[in-house]
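Q: What would this complex look like in 3D?
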Amino acid sequence: MAAAASHRAAPEHTHPDDVPVLTALAALADPVRLTLVRELADSEEWSRACGSFDVPVGKAALSHHFAVLRAAGLVEQRDQGPKRVNRLRRPEFDARFPGLLDLVLRRDVGE
Amino acid sequence: MAAAASHRAAPEHTHPDDVPVLTALAALADPVRLTLVRELADSEEWSRACGSFDVPVGKAALSHHFAVLRAAGLVEQRDQGPKRVNRLRRPEFDARFPGLLDLVLRRDVGE
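A: Here is my prediction, written as structure tokens for the whole assembly.
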């Protein structure tokens, strides 16, 4: 299992500073990704493996959603043994797009 | 021409207070609609007819984009003779989603 994990390509990341606003908006404008971001915001950094989120999608779709979040500068990932763990890039994203995460993390604006 | 205009159904609007955040983000996460919103922000209220925007889409697509903007509480429209004119619902939208329009109207965050 550890051998299989080590053969997996490391995830590619985009820094929020290199993300256009349309990419950021499109990444957040999806119910599954909004749930991932909200759950990450409520969790310790690096505490959540990709499979630990409460979203109604299969493995391939989930992997796509995480790729979109990485490309939008919202999520950082690293492999820890057989698990891929996550953190929300909150300070970097906030510096680039002030207030956007605060807005989508509010629970009074619906989904 | 005036008769034809009077037969057209009046546009339906959604108040920003009734708009979920995902709807607002999805409305803004499109290059054509972002251009419409930015041009409206730079124009006097009710001064812009639907055909006056510099966007590379046909009439049917443009009509769809305006319907999306109305449904997201971003744009108000009214018929003025043969023309349908527009205003950005900036104060109402700002009250519901503080900072979101300011962010997308910044020109230093790219498209």
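A: To summarize the key features: Chain A has six helices and three strands. The beta strands of chain A are 48-49, 75-80, 83-88.
Q: Very helpful, thank you.
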